[in-house]
Amino acid sequence: MYARVFSFLVVISLAVQVRSETRVAIAHLISQNVTGSITFTETANGIRVSGTITGLDVGKYGFHVHELGDTSTCDAAGAHFDPDDNTHGGRDHAVRHVGDLGNVQFVGTENPVANVDFVDNVISLRGRNSIIGRTLVLHEQEDDLGLGGNEGSLNTGNAGPRIGCGVIGIRSPSGPWNSSASVFPSLFLLTLTAAFVIGK
After folding, report:
1. Is the dihedral of CA 121, 129, 26, 41 positive or negative?
2. Which residues contact 154 (CB under 8 A, 6 or more apart)?
3. How far is CA 149 from the centre of its chain?
4. 85 classed as catalytic
């Protein structure tokens, strides 16, 4: 009996281990002027968004996840990622698009740099709010965070044209992302083991 229980617990442990591996995604922003790499890392508090961007003057610039992964042009990436059909807002607002990540701020004198580092608890690397395969977009103007008092503000934050973009893709680890190494085989074994234990 104890051997069966031990086997059952081992299978549960394996299933949880596969599920709990930290996932990391990355987007490389490349355009005529903009260069940067942004990583998206799972944490206990949400997705940590971090990296650096160069190529723009000092100031704030709208920073969003858009719904499509087509970067033949940045405009081809579609609208803000918004599965809930909300109005546009700031990153910390109760009502916002999933893809609303506010602004990045370029600082410095000769070669301004935007150092990005924050945690967002709305975007995800799995499930309904997953940003994998979508596009990270940098805009030409500051995002007014939906507070501009007009229709454009509630749609896009009046952040202006898109001047840099990159598809958000898998960085690591490779195992959990691949169907051949997904959590489902472990869950299948878990089901069989449970049936065996209960049947005995």
Report:
1. positive
2. 87, 88, 146
3. 28
4. no
Q: Is 64 a catalytic residue?
A: yes
Residue 17 domain flag: no
Q: Which domain holds residue 106?
A: 23-175
Cβ count within 10 A of residue 196: 12
6 in Cβ contact with 13 (< 8 Å): no
Give the tens place of pLDDT for each residue, 2-48.
Answer: 444 444 434 444 444 444 689 999 999 988 889 999 999 999 999 99
Q: Single out the catalytic residue among 100, 120, 143, 144.
A: 100
Residue 88 is among the residues annotated as catalytic for this protein = yes
Model pTM score: 0.80
Q: Is residue 1 part of a domain?
A: no
Annotation says 97 is catalytic? yes
